[in-house]
Amino acid sequence: MDFLQLSSDSRPGFPEGGERGRVWAMSAYAARLSAALEGRYRIERELGAGGMATVYLARDLRHDREVAMKVLQPDLAQSLGRDRFVQEIRLAARLTHPHILPLYDSGEADGLLYFVMPVMRGQTLRDRLVQERALPIDDAVRIASEVSDALDYAHRHDVVHRDIKPENILLHEGHAIVADFGIGKALAAASEPAAASEETVAFTKVGVTIGTPAYMSPEQASGDAVDGRSDLFALGCVLYEMLTGEAAFSGPTAQAVIARRFIASPPPVTDARPEVTAALADTVARLLRRSPDERFPSGARVVAALRSSETCPAVPATPPADRERLHPSIAVLPFANLSTDPENEYFSDGLTEELITDLAGVKALRVISRASSLQLKGTTRGLKEVGQVLGVRYVLTGSARKAGSALRITAQLSDATTDEQLWAEKYSGTMDDVFDVQERVSRAIVSALQVTLSASEDHRLAERPIKNARAFELYLRAQVLVRRYGAPIDEVSRLLDRAIEIEGLTPPLRALRAFAWVTQMRAGMSTDPRHLARAEAEARELVDLAPGAPYGYSLLGFISYERGLLGETVRYLTMALDRDGSDADALFFLGIALEAAGQGPAAIAAGRRFLEVDPLSPMAGALLNSAYWFVGRPAEGLEAHERGLRLDAENPIIHWSLGYTYALLGRLADARGHATWMEAHATEMPYTVQLAALLDGLQGQPEEALARLAAIAESSFDAHITFHMSESFAVAGAHEAALRVLEQAVERGFYPHDYIAVHCPFLAPLRGTAAFDRIAERAARRVAEFSA
Fold first, then answer.
1. 8 Å CB contact between 723 and 745
2. Alpha-carbon span 448 to 436, nearest angstrom
3. How many CB atoms lie within 10 A of CB 729?
4. Which of 51, 110, 136, 697 has a 20 to 30 Å separation from 748 between CA atoms?
5. Residues 67 and 144 in one domain
6. Of the candidates 416, 412, 415, 414, which has an alpha carbon nearest to the alpha carbon of residue 424?
7. Domains in the chain: how many in total?
C-alpha cells in the first residue's frame, strides 16, 4: 500500500496529471468522513486513490498543521475487524525513529477506518528510480543502511512492515524515511478471526494482497508465518533494484513474479555493475536467500555488512604478483605437426601431453591441464591474449617434424605479459630419442623459471609411463571418450585393447580402463556392482605398483564416491591431487563429492580450482555452476557452464546439467531443448529420462512424466541420479515414490541437507510432511558426520 506524499512544490499537492493531480470534489463519501471528524480534522482535498485506500490532504485543527489522512475503502473497512486493526495501528504509532514516518493518529469515523501521517515534501525512492534507473553505489548503500536501521528498530519492537518497496521509502532532505509501518500487519490481523494466528496469508479472505509481488518474501507469498527477515528479503529486492536498475524478480503477471522467487535467483549484481564490491554483492545475495534462516538475522547485521562493504572491497588472499613468484603459471600449447603426413598429428599431441604431465608433477608450478591447452590447438591468437584467456604468465609453444624415423623438435618459452622469449631450443634425432628430448625440454623450462626440484620430482621427470607414441595416441583418444561419460564402452575398450597390445599393461592404461568401468556406473549405463569390484582390484594393485603416481588413489576416490563413502572419496582424491595437481578427473569428482556431502562453499572452491587449473575444460564450468545449485544460486557460474557446451557440444552430461540449470531458473523451453538433444543422442542414459520427466511434471504433464519413469523407477543407480529421480517423481505428484527414492539417495551417499530442505524448488511438494522431515534430519546428521 503506497504512501502518497506531497511534491517538492511550495504549495501542497502532487505533480500535475493523473489521479494525483486532480482536485478533489466533495463527494457524499468524503462528506460523510468530514462530518464524522468535524472539530478534529478538516478534509481539504483528495491526493490520490488506490484499491485499498484513498489519501486526503487534511488540516489537523488541534495542532494547526497539514496532515495526510489515509482512509480504507468502505467495503474493505466493513470486512475488517475494527478492534484488531486499531490495536495494531496503535503498536505502530509507538515507533519513534529518525527513519520511520510517524503515525499521528488512527481510528474509526462513521464506520470508516483511517490513520494520519505527516505530509512529506520531496520524492519517493520509486520517483528517483524512474528518473535515474540505477543509483550511484554510495547512495544505494546509504539508503539501504537507513532502511535497515529503521527495520531493526521496528523488529525489536515486534512490528513487521510486510510491504517494503520503493513506493514506501520516502526521500526527505536527502535521507530515507520508511512509511506505512504497521499498516500491513494491521490489515492482516484485522482480516482474520480473533482465534486465528497472528500471522496471516498473503491473500486475505477479503481479497486484499498484503505485500507487493515484486518484493514479497517466499514465506510471505506462501502464506507462512513471517518475521523481520521477511522485510529483509524485500529490502534485498529494493537494494538489487537500486544497484542494477532492474527488478530482482519480474514476470508478465503477479503470479509469475511470485513464482520466480521459488525457482530462480536473480543474476549477481556484478553482472550489471562490475564496479560493485564482492562484499556488497554477497550482502545482496544473502538478503535474497529463499530460506529466512540463511538471511541476516537482524537489520543491525545488515547495517554492519553494508558499512563494511563500502570500505573493504574483496581482494585475493594472495596478490597476483606474489602468487606468480611462489607458483609460476604456465600453459603448454599443442605442438604444431609440421610433417607432411597428417597421421603424425598423434605424435605432436602426445608430446604436448607428456610435457604437461612432466611439469604438472612439479608442485612449485601451476600448470594448465591438457584439456584447456588443446582448445587452443592451431590458434592464431597472440601470446598476450593466450595468457589472458588461460590466466597464465608463461607459455610454451613448439613444433614437431617427423619423417620416417627422423625427428626434429623446436620449443620456445615466452613471458605472455611482455611477449618476451625467455628460452628456445632445437632438437634433432630419431624416434628412439623422443622421450629423452621430452625430458630435456621439461628440465630446461624448470631451469628457466628458476624452480628447484625435489628428489622425487627429479625422479618423476625421468619416468615414461607409456613409451610408444602410437599407444599414447590411442590412450588419449580413449580418455576423451571416457570423460564424456555416455560414450559406448565398446569403443573405449577397442582403443585401450589396441594400446595394451602395443605397449603392454602399463599403469596409465590399466587406470583408464578401470575408470571407464566406473563411469559406466556414474552415467547409469550399468548397475552391475562387479564393475566397481574389478575397478577396486585394479586400484589397489596400482597403489602398490606406482605409489608415487595418482592412478590408484584417483580410482579409489571414484569408487568410494559411487559407493556413497564421501569421506573416503575426499581423502583418496586429495592424495591423488598431491601427486598430480592438474588431474582433471580427480578435481571433478572432488567437487561433486563435496556437493553430495552438503559442503557448499568447499564445493564452490573446488569448482573454482578446477576452472583455474583447466579454464577451457568443458566440465570445469559445469562443476562450478552445479556447486552453486546447492547454495541456492543457480544463475552463478552459468556463463562458464554454457561455454563448456560450446567447447564440447557432444557431451551428454553437459547437456543434462545445463538443462537442469535452466529448469532451476524457470527457463523451461531452454531446458526442453537439451532434453530433446539427449533423447536423440543419449537414449540409454537414465539422466535423459530424468530430465525429460522433470520437465513433463513442471509443464503440467504428470502422466507423461510417470510413464517415462516407470521403466527405470526401481533400478539401483548411484546416489546422485537417484536423488534427481526423486525430484522428477515429486513434480509429477507421485509423492510416495519421491520420498522413497529420496530416502534411498540419502542413504546411498547423496545428502546435501540445505539443498534438500531449503533450496531445491522441485522438492517443495514434499516439504512439511513427517516423512520428508525425517529424511531431511537424516541428511543433516550425515552432513554433520562428514564435517566432523
1. yes
2. 18
3. 29
4. 697
5. no
6. 412
7. 4
Please state, in angstroms and rounded to a whole number, the distance separating the CA atoms of residues 627 and 292: 21
For 671, other C-beta atoms within 10 Å of its C-beta total 24
Quick one: CA torsion of 390, 391, 395, 398, rounded to 10 degrees?
Answer: 0
In a shared domain, residues 114 and 184: no
Task: Give Dmax (Cα) for the chain.
Answer: 112
Q: Which of 2, 149, 152, 163 is catalytic?
A: 163
The packing angle between helices 228-244 and 125-132, to 10°, is 30
Output phi, psi for 375, to 5 deg: -65, -20
- The whole domain housing 215 covers 123-311
More confident residue, 366 or 729: 729
- One domain, residues 167 and 288: yes
What is the spatial distance between Cα 228 and Cα 298, in angstroms, rounded to a whole number?
Answer: 7
Q: What is the pLDDT of residue 429?
A: 74
Dihedral-angle region of residue 196 (phi above 0 means left; psi in -120 to 50 means alpha; beta otherwise): beta
Q: Percentage of the chain with pLDDT > 70?
A: 83
Type and span of the H or E element at 21: helix 18-21
Do 138 and 110 reside in the same domain of the chain?
Answer: no
Instruction: Mark which of 245, 280, 311 sits at the end of a domain.
Output: 311
Tens-digit pLDDT profile for residues 733-753: 999 999 999 999 999 999 999
The DSSP line for 608-634 is: HHHHHHSTT-HHHHHHHHHHHHTTT-T
The three cell numbers locating residue 460: 618423476
Phi, psi for residue 97 in degrees, rounded to 5 = -155, 140
Strand ranges of the sheet holding 169-172, from the earlier edge strand across to the other edge:
123-124, 169-172, 175-178
Taking only the tens place, the pLDDT of each residue in 222-273 is: 888 889 999 999 999 999 999 999 999 887 777 777 877 877 788 899 888 8
Distances (CA, A) of 731 to 493, 631, 726, 741: 39, 21, 9, 13
Cα 434 to Cα 405, 424, 457: the distances in Å are 10, 17, 20
Q: Is 183 helix (H, G, I), strand (E, B) or coil?
A: helix
Q: What is the mean pLDDT of residues 614-619?
A: 80
Nearest to 435 by CA among 463, 477, 475: 463
Instruction: For residues 352 and 437, state if they share a domain.
Output: yes
Contact indicator for 511, 556 with CB cutoff of 8 Å: no
Assign residue 749 a region (left: φ > 0; alpha: ψ between -120 and 50; beta: otherwise). left
Q: What's the Cα-to-Cα distance from 426 to each of 102, 108, 401, 429, rounded to whole Å? A: 83, 96, 11, 10
Backbone angles phi, psi at 421, to 5 degrees: -80, 125
Same domain? For 151 and 267 the reply is: yes
CA angle at 225 for the pair 267 and 250, rounded to the nearest 5° = 25
What is the model's pLDDT at position 656? 97
The reply to whether 199 and 87 lie within a common domain is no
CB atoms within 10 A of CB 127: 17
User: Using CA of residue 450, residue 454, residue 459, residue 460, what is the dihedral sign?
Assistant: negative
* 224 catalytic per annotation: no
- Contacts of range 777-780, beta carbons closer than 8 Å, 24 or more positions apart: 778/743, 778/746, 778/747, 778/751, 779/598, 779/746, 779/751, 779/752, 779/753, 780/753
Which of 133, 136, 141 has the alpha carbon at shortest distance from 246? 133
pLDDT at 362 over 90: no
List the grid coordinates of 167: 513506493
Regarding beta strands 65-72 and 112-118, do their DSSP bridges make them parallel or antiparallel, or are they unpaired?
A: antiparallel
pLDDT in tens, 520-538: 765 555 566 677 788 888 8
Task: Please indicate, yes or no, if residue 39 is contained in any of the structural domains.
Answer: yes
How many Cβ atoms sit within 10 Å of the Cβ of residue 754?
20
Percentage helix, strand, coil, to 5, in the chain? Answer: 55, 10, 30
Spatial separation of the C-alpha atoms in residues 679 and 700, rounded to whole Å: 20
What is the distance in angstroms between the CA of the first residue and the CA of the last residue of the chain?
49
Write the CATH number for 75.
3.30.200.20
113 and 127 housed in the same domain? no
